[in-house]
Amino acid sequence: MTAVFEPHCLVCEKAVDFGELICDNCRGNLHSPSLSEGDFKVYHYGKYEYPLSNLIKEFKYHSHPKIAQIFGNMLAKFFIDLKFPELNYTVSYVPSNFSSIHEKGFVPAHLIAHHFSDILGFPIINLFSSKTHKRQAQLDYRKRNENVKNKIKLIHVPPKNIIIIDDVYTTGASMNEVGNLLINKCDVLIGITVAKAYRYSFNSSL
């Protein structure tokens, strides 16, 4: 008799229904919102800790791009719950450098932004190119800032109301660099990430 494959939660390995990637218990523990304020506001759906950190690692490092749909759904609901003004928003995302794209085969923030924009009906645009030489995950706080400083370029005229999507906000270096390119060119600029990391170490795999 052929064994029937039983799907398991990608976080805790508990059995789940077919078509599900995570169990209800883990899903219910993902949301822990916070806000980073600087030149513009960046809203975080959760914290980079278990179980959300495990799901992000599965997404980014173990070839589970379908998790992007979960993240896109989460961020879309988060955006609605935050009750932003009803404007003609355009969605963009923090870029990855060449080595990261080569290693993963995709841009994590792009996949999330794609599902986010589809759900909300907002157009999506690739506004940036990255000339960074090293992956941010390999660097400490100071070097993360140095790595992106003047290395992310604006490649299109930005729309007036922009939502920038990213997966993990660690030091804020990439999001802030992107924001600096837009802050005087947009009427409304909003950052939204899946998770914020409150503590990290060198080679933390964020």
Q: Could you please say which CATH topology applies here?
A: Rossmann fold
Structural class: alpha/beta
CATH architecture: 3-Layer(aba) Sandwich
Ranges where pLDDT stays below 50 over 5 or more residues in a row are: 136-141, 200-206
Helix proportion range: 25-40%
What can be said about the biggest beta sheet?
A: 5 strands, mixed
Strand content: 15-25%
- Give the rounded overall mean pLDDT: 83
- Gyration radius, rounded: 17 Å
Number of strands: 7
Q: How many DSSP helices?
A: 7
* Shape, per Cα inertia axes: globular
Report the end-to-end length measured between terminal Cα atoms. 43 Å
InterPro entries: ComF/GntX_DNA_util-trans (IPR051910), PRTase-like (IPR029057), PRTase_dom (IPR000836)
Protein name: Phosphoribosyltransferase
Organism: Petrotoga miotherma DSM 10691
Family: Belongs to the ComF/GntX family.
Core attributes:
206 residues; alpha/beta; Rossmann fold; 5-stranded mixed beta sheet; two-stranded antiparallel sheet; 7 helices; 33% helix; disordered C terminus; PRTase-like
Please give a quick description of this structure:
The chain is an alpha/beta fold and 206 residues long. Helix content is 33%, strand content 19%.
